[in-house]
Amino acid sequence: MALRAIGRVESPLRDKADAPRQGDEGAPDAWLVFEPGVAAGLRDLVPGTPMLVFTWLDRADRDVLVTHPRDDLSRPPTGVFSTRSPDRPNPIGLHLVDVLEIDGLRVRVRNLEALDGTPVVDLKPVLGPER
Amino acid sequence: MALRAIGRVESPLRDKADAPRQGDEGAPDAWLVFEPGVAAGLRDLVPGTPMLVFTWLDRADRDVLVTHPRDDLSRPPTGVFSTRSPDRPNPIGLHLVDVLEIDGLRVRVRNLEALDGTPVVDLKPVLGPER
């Protein structure tokens, strides 16, 4: 079960302290920069459509099973599978973005809260044919 | 970027020919059977809530970049990132399910179209705190 990076995130977000917790809390536009080897898979992307971007949150702590609220101490610790915390056994990031622009292997998106350099591992339509 | 199985799908769906293309096209109820090592992460699951299950579609073909419609030859081949085909470079399955019942490490869900034995790699709320 080895993931391969199919691309990388290019973003002004450089470290965790910069990152908003949800994409719609003010993430700047970012680029997905794909590997040449997957170009054929990109050919039907359409600007203006929502897509799901899957990333590998490579700066996450994979040993966390119970998370502690970052800034609200009145909230109790929570089992990690009931949160969207990046710190979890398999730190797969799931991001609902809007595709803004496609320029060859570069795809500009809105609402991606991933850090610069984060590996991209998949891209799927929100709903589409499974075949 | 090595995924670890945190559990397995237990389902009457045994092979690809049985599987509906979307969970809401008649997938039977299934169980997620988690590893003892991740038990603490499950403790806040609540029956009746929708959840996102991430699987590793271990019977997929990872070399596919362009898919051909399975049963509608009038549709053109499509770049795989514009489809939900399991055959793709990183065959991560994303399934929107309803949690029906929790019995220790076993979680019964509705609308999971994954095959019996499929590795489970993550479980997230549809929307929740990222912390």
Indicate the proportion of strand residues of chain A.
25-35%
Instruction: Detail the poorly predicted runs of chain A.
Output: none
Report the end-to-end length of chain A measured between terminal Cα atoms: 22 Å
Q: What gyration radius of chain A follows from the Cα positions, in whole Å? A: 15 Å
Instruction: Using the alpha-carbon principal axes, give the shape of chain A.
Output: globular
Order of helices and strands of chain A: EEEEEEEE
Second-tier CATH architecture of chain A: Beta Barrel
How many E strands of chain A? 8
Description:
2 copies of one chain form a homodimer. With 131 residues, chain A is mainly β. Chain A has one domain (7-125): YaeB-like (Elongation Factor Tu (Ef-tu), domain 3). Chain A is built from no helices and 8 strands. Chain A has strands at 7-10, 30-34, 50-56, 66-67, 78-79, 92-103, 106-110, 119-125. In chain A, the strands form 2 sheets. Chain A has a 6-stranded antiparallel beta barrel with strand order 1-2-7-6-3-8. In chain A, strand 6 (92-103) and strand 7 (106-110) form a beta hairpin. Chain A is globular. The mean pLDDT of chain A is 89. Chains A and B meet through strand 3, strand 4, strand 5 and strand 8 of A and strand 3, strand 4, strand 5 and strand 8 of B.
